[in-house]
Amino acid sequence: MTALTDRMRTCAAHGMTFAYADPPYLGCGKLYPEHPAARDWDDPHTHYRLIDRLFDEYPDGWVLSCHEPSLHILRAYAGRDCRTGIWVKPFAVFKPNVNPAYAWEPVIFRGGRKFERYDDKVRDWVAANIRMQSGTIGSKPRDFCRWVFSLLNARQGDTLDDLFPGSSAVAAAWAEWTGDQSPLPLLPLEMSAS
Length: 194
Ligand SMILES: C[S@@+](CC[C@H](N)C(=O)[O-])C[C@H]1O[C@@H](n2cnc3c(N)ncnc32)[C@H](O)[C@@H]1O
Fold this sequence. Notes:
There is one protein chain. The protein has 6 helices and 6 strands. It is α/β, with parallel strands linked by helices. It has a single domain, classed as Rossmann fold. The chain has a 6-stranded mixed sheet, with helices on both faces. Helix 2 crosses helix 3 and helix 4 packs across helix 5. It starts with a helix and ends with a helix. It binds S-adenosylmethionine.
């Protein structure tokens, strides 16, 4: 991966620098055999180091995706200065032996551009269908990405470092958000949800 696609720097004079981190969820390293160090994410300390990095390198703001089974561990480590948001999946993967199904995912987020009093309100949750057939397990849908950018109150001229690019869906959504690229064609599920 090139530095450009990895970091998506737009380098504007007064822009803020944010990060979105979407690592293999705790205990899910086996889902990513394409990466030699994917199993490192089965250890909570790898996630702790990532959270430390987010605090250290991204004081302007960051968003970290995780799954419900690890939320109590990671949220406790991240501390009080963070908030939790929820991605609800009206259409989700239903596994035969898992009932109730996992149909939402948390994000832990911190910072972001200060909202002004009359700015539109951003909810701390979003409903968006999962993205299918992206080639990367856990690829994030466009509406989820746009919600992440909204949480950070991100604007054109800001920088987003997508630390785990996977399918590059976040990069594509960011390019659209910042006006660097015309809107991408919606996938069928995204069309039916909007
Ligand atoms: C949840 S997916 C990211 C999905 C991405 N946000 C998207 O929308 O397509 C996690 C990604 O991290 C990669 N990965 C696994 N182990 C890694 C490691 N040790 N360092 C960096 N990336 C890793 C996986 O190959 C996978 O592409």
